[in-house]
Amino acid sequence: MSETTAPVTAASAPAGVVVAECAxxxxxxxxxxxxxxxxxxxxxxAIPSALPKLIAHPSAAESFEKLGWGSAGMYTIxxxxxxxxxxxxxxxxxxxxxxxxxxxMVGAFVVQVAVFDxxxxxxxxxxxxxxxxxxxxxxxxxxxxxxLLRRRA
Length: 153
Description:
Blueprint: H1 20-54, H2 58-67, H3 70-87, H4 94-114, H5 122-137, H6 141-152
Helix pairs in contact: 1-3, 1-5, 2-3, 3-4, 4-5
Membrane topology: Multi-pass membrane protein
Protein name: Putative membrane protein
Transmembrane segments: 36-55, 67-89, 96-115, 121-137
């Protein structure tokens, strides 16, 4: 006796059964959403965050003078934010960039609380959440980065 079975499709699958095609489509949508999030964060870090520091906008200059870091600190933070924004878009650097920007946001939170009385302290904390998601979701690229670095050494 031989049994013949029809292939399981999304329409014929019993409730609660995940079909490979559905999982693939869901995974594809998740990758697209994650990539969109990365682009949005890269745009945020490049334009409204890094640009005012790099062009020495008066509002940025005033904040860094209050910190006592002056223009050197302002340009350094602006360059780090811009580098992180670009690295968020480079596949092999995505996870590392998200971790580095998260560390920068921890520093921003501490500065907001210690120097600026917590006026905008929630912003860096809010930004850490999607950065942590990106760092975790793209963690597989870290092994690729290590291989590239070892090959160059």
